[in-house]
Amino acid sequence: CVLCNRTVRLLHENDAKDILRFSVLNDSGLPEGSIMVVDGQEVLTDSSGVVRILRSMGGSWRLAGEIIAAFPLSLRDLVYRMIARNRRHLFGTKECVVPSAELQSKIIRL
Predict the structure, then answer these.
(1) Which of 64, 84, 96, 97 is the most exposed place for a label (fewest CB within 10 A)?
(2) How far is CA 15 from CA 21, 60, 70, 78, in A?
(3) What is the model's pLDDT at position 27?
(4) How far apart are CA 49 and CA 36, in angstroms?
(5) Model-level pTM?
(6) Neighbouring C-alpha atoms within 13 Å toward the C-beta of 64
(7) How far is CA 7 from CA 13, 72, 74, 91, in A?
(8) Span between the terminal Cα atoms of the chain, in Å
(9) Which residues of the chain have pLDDT under 50?
């Protein structure tokens, strides 16, 4: 979807530490629209994954992560799931961009 594609491109372009890798989670067993962040032995999903990514990026992204983390997990995940469930309606589905070679090198197959 447009939201997913743009988010991956935005994260890739702002990953100054070159620590992020991306994958399609269709066969992961997670609900559609989920995000999974693996940090060492810790696996985070949904809003907790978003917070971890933002914090890892530093600068104003880290501040955004801290602000989001200040809200209760149940509220954060509720908002996350509402956006995930409605992302195609809110953002569309017509964007199909071939990733650059550099971005393709950061895509892992599960």
Answers:
(1) 96
(2) 10, 13, 23, 27
(3) 63
(4) 6
(5) 0.79
(6) 10
(7) 10, 23, 23, 12
(8) 19
(9) none
